[in-house]
Amino acid sequence: MPFEEAREKTLARVSPVRERERVALGAAPGRVLAAPVVAPHDVPNHDNSAMDGYAVRFADLKAEGEVRLSLAGVVAAGDEAGAVLKPGEALRILTGAPVPAGCDCIVIQEVVRLEGGSVVVPGGQERHQHIRRAGQDIAVGTEVFGAGRILGPAEIGMLASLGIGQVEVVRRLRVAVLSTGNEVCEPGRAIAPGQLYDSNRASLKAALAALRVEVIDLGIARDRREEIEAALRRGAAEADVVLSSGGVSVGDFDLVKDVIDELGAIDFWKVRMKPGKPQAHGRLGDAAFFGLPGNPVSVLVTYLLLVRPALLRMMGTDPGPLRYLRLPYRGETIRKSHDRAEFMRGWVRYGAEGAHVESTGAQGSGILSSMAAADVLIHLPEAPVTIRDGDMVEAIEIVY
Ligand code: AMP
Ligand code: MG
To answer: Residue 345 maps to which CATH number?
Structure first.
């Protein structure tokens, strides 16, 4: 299956979880809004001063030349609104203080002179200057965020500024993660020659942490039917999504495939992409199943390009398109002779002539160091292609 088709299929076959819950704002970062938020009042909720200075009536001032106003008091941030500014007077005003009735201009303190009980204000002021209007950030009644919005720091800040202490969010997605392989071992223990540490489960769990989903750790299953079956059964029962790695390449596939055939169904496997050709997409009971390849880079690349968008959709938000940058490539000539889409690990460099992209090094699907260095995946289309220094390429931003 071509990569683009696999992307469409993986998105089309998942649907958003329906359950929602109310959470305190402090627990809401990274969560997805389940219902729109409408502003219960204006932000700011009153006209206030943007500067330390003097509240005046514009009509009292002159376009050129000074005027002398009598200083009638002071208003500070936190004071109750209700101060009144009479003609011929000025009030000392501090940043954030409510603008007194009658005032339509704030003059900054740096330009005035204080003489006895008077304030001498120079000409050249502008009406309405340095006044922050009620509702200029958010007007009462407007829809601030729609359902599906992911709550990041600025969103959370806006909700707090509206006085909202609780929000209705989609319940957290439950994602189970399994590693497979006789050679795969838990980090923290000594390993024998021929064994390796389980990096896939660690990197998948790290990626899932960025999405704030609930992770169900299914551990490592040996290449034995009973172990794989027990783990996948547990995943299917407890999770919305089951991710496994390894055991889906041609020689190995039978074990995982047998179990899935029994517990669910495979929709497709083998995607024309590199890294990441062997994959198994399907269902395990009611859970969506993604059988990812074993190689550590293939795991992260297929996660980023195929799994993550599907998870976002299930979380109730729009995954949006992949973020492509069009940049000149710098480096040795790349000759791609196979007919799969290829995703090369690259980094963007910023120079005097603008940005360009380079390879981060060896591209083997087991080489995590070039993945760790990468901030983009250079997308080479299916057809065989030669890319030379200076050619334009399409690079997908890596966003976990
Ligand atoms: P497989 O598809 O199971 O044959 O795995 C392909 C390659 O990925 C093999 O070299 C495995 O040793 C390696 N591999 C599989 N699972 C993991 C894992 N959890 N962590 C690191 N490497 C793995
Ligand atoms: Mg294996």
So the answer is: 2.40.340.10
Domain enclosing residue 256, as ranges: 3-17+172-314
Which CATH number do you get for residue 149?
3.90.105.10
- Ion ligand 2 neighbours (CB, 5 A) are 181, 246-247, 294
Torsion, Cα 47 50 51 55, to 10 degrees, reads -20
Query: How far is 276 from 66, CA to CA, in rounded Å?
Result: 75
The CA–CA distances, whole Å, from 240 to 17, 174, 213, 320, 378 equal: 9, 5, 10, 21, 31
pLDDT in tens, 106-153: 999 999 999 999 999 999 999 999 999 999 999 999 999 999 999 999
Mutate to test the pocket of ligand 1, among 179, 199, 223, 245 (most ligand atoms within 8 A of CB): 245
Q: Note whether 43 and 137 are within 8 A (CB).
A: yes
Find the radius of gyration of the CA atoms of the chain. Answer: 30
Q: Ligand 1 pocket, 184 CB below 6 A?
A: yes
Q: What percent of the chain has pLDDT over 70?
A: 100
